[in-house]
Write a structure and sequence with these properties.
Distance between the termini: 109 Å
Shape: rod-shaped
Strand content: under 5%
Number of strands: 3
Helix content: 55-70%
Mean pLDDT: 85
Number of helices: 11
Amino acid sequence: MNYETTCPRCSSELISDLESGSSVCGCGYTNNQALTRVFEKRDRQMIKVYTVVGLMVMGLYMHFMSWGSYATQIPGLKISQMLGMASPKTYQTIVDACIQQNKWSCVESTYLSWYKSTGDAETIASLAHFRTQLKDLQGAVRAYQSYYKIGGKNPAVAIQYGLALEKTNDLDNALKYFSLAISQSDPAKLPAQATGEIVQILIKQQKPAEAREAIVAFWASAENAKGYFNTEYDAITKVLGPMKSHVAKN
C-alpha cells in the first residue's frame, strides 16, 4: 500500500501510522486511508443495493405491465397450477388473464394443463373454440378430433365442430357432426341450429330433396317444431313440387 510522505498542503513531512494507515501534519492536514477504505466499501455496497432495488422495481413494473389487473393474482394462481393444486376456477382465471393480455400461447398451455390435471374433455373443447376464435381452423379441427377421441359427448361441441368443418369446406363431415348433435340433444329441446345447418349445407350441395326431408323430419320431432324452416321448405317445393306426403305446416 502507498502512503503519502509529504503534506500536500504545506509540503512538510507527514507523521504516518502504518498500522492504521493514517497520516497527519502539524498544519492540520489528515489522510486517514483506513477511513477512506471504509467509505469506499460502503459506497460499493450501496451501489449493489441500489442496483438490486432498481432491478426489482423494473421487474415489478414489467410484471404489472405484462399482467394488468391480474398482476397481483397471477403469481399465486401460477404456483397452485405448478403444484397441481389448481381448481377449475383457478384455471379459468388464468385463461381469462392470458386472454386479456393477448397471451395466446399461455391460453393454450393452460387449457392443456387443465385437461391433464382434471381429465375433463370439455377443456379440450374450450381449446378448440379458442382456436376457432383466432381463425386457426386447422388447429381447431385437431382439437375437436382430440375431444372425440377422449370420449366427448356434448351436442353443443358437435355443433361447434360442424361449424369449423363447414368453414374449411369439409361439408360431408360437417353434416356428420350436425347429425350427431341432433342425436345427442335433449329430447325436450329442439335441435333447430343443427337442423338449419344441415339444410343449408344440403342446399349448397344441390341436394334439395334431402334438405326438404331434413325439414320434415324436424317437424315430426315435436309439435312446436312446425313453425321453423317454412321459408326454406316453400323455396325447395317451388323447385321440386309438392311432396307426396309430409307433415302439415301451420
